[in-house]
Amino acid sequence: MVHAADDELLMPIANKIILAPGAWVRALAEVSVAVAEAKGVTAPVSGISASDTAKRVAASLLSGRNKAFCWQRGRRSPPSWTVASLGAVLCAQTGATFGYLGAAATALAVTWRMQRLRKAD
Predict the structure, then answer these.
(1) How far apart (Å, rounded) are the C-alpha atoms in residues 49 and 36?
(2) pLDDT by residue (tens digit) across 32-72?
(3) What string of DSSP letters covers the chain?
(4) Nearest Cα to 59, choosing from 67, 48, 69, 49?
(5) Which of 37, 30, 5 has the alpha carbon at shortest distance from 86?
(6) How far apart are the C-alpha atoms of 92 and 107, rounded to whole Å?
(7) What's the rounded Cα separation, in Å, for the pair 81 and 23?
(8) Which is the most buried residue in 13, 50, 75, 88, by most CB within 10 A?
């Protein structure tokens, strides 16, 4: 999870990256580099090294089940599209589900999805 606040989400979260929104692009870029390095493929970004945290997140994404990237915050701003693009790349590389959530649907959609994922276990 990449988020600005370390809230209790009442659902299992394998890893958290808690940063100001302005640092999200860099954090996701580092995770995408770590995933690419682990898979032995070309990274979608250059000039960035993966931090230890990014490597832990990448390992979790590559080995875990029930992975999702849900995006809502500021969907119209250019940095937002960069975050969403990196999220889509990470999903393609790790087999995670990618999706957008509308503001009103956030709580309901996440709750519904997590209940379905728990039933699948």
Answers:
(1) 11
(2) 999 999 999 999 899 999 999 999 999 988 987 777 777 66
(3) -EESS----SS--S--EE--GGGHHHHHHHHHHHHHHHHTS--SS-S-PPPHHHHHHHHHHHH-SS-EEEE-TTTTSHHHHHHHHHHHHHHHHHT-EEEE--TTTHHHHHHHHHHHHHHH-
(4) 67
(5) 30
(6) 25
(7) 14
(8) 50
CA–CA separation, 113 and 70 (whole Å): 11
Cβ-count burial 75-84 (b if 16+ within 10 Å, e if not): eeeeebeebb
Q: And the tokens for 92?
A: 């393609």
Q: Enter the pTM of the model.
A: 0.76
Q: Is pLDDT above 60 for 93?
A: yes
Please name which of 8, 121, 5, 17 lies closest in space to residue 69, comparing C-alpha atoms.
Answer: 17
Structural tokens at position 3: 């988020």
